[in-house]
Design brief:
Alpha-Beta Plaits, single chain, 4-stranded antiparallel beta sheet, alpha+beta, globular
Length: about 100
């Protein structure tokens, strides 16, 4: 399992619309091969920031299967217009002895 994190900064005043767009975009990513789960967290100190956490079966499922697909283009078209800055994305693997 791989955990993708995306720190997303949206344009001020667009939180409700961004969350609605992500709700519409969720089925697109959820239908992708290797998708396990998605969580969205809203910033407390910085209300224009969100933390998106997506679990994938493998790194290739995200980077090759999803990011190189038409589904990614559709996903990004729904949520991308709200971005103030490009998302900061990283991938993490579990530390087996601690989970």
């Amino acid at each position: 399992m791989i955990l993708e994190h995306a720190l997303i900064t949206i344009r001020p005043g667009t939180a409700d619309d961004f969350e609605d767009a992500l709700a519409r975009a969720r089925p697109i990513i959820a239908a992708s091969h290797g998708f396990i789960s998605l969580e969205l967290h809203h910033g407390i100190e910085q209300p224009d920031q969100y933390l998106l956490l997506v679990e994938w079966e493998s790194l290739d499922d995200h980077l090759v299967g999803f990011r190189a697909s038409a589904a990614f283009t559709e996903w990004r078209a729904l949520i991308g217009p709200f971005f103030e800055l490009p998302p900061v994305v990283g991938h993490f693997a579990p530390v087996e002895d601690l989970v």
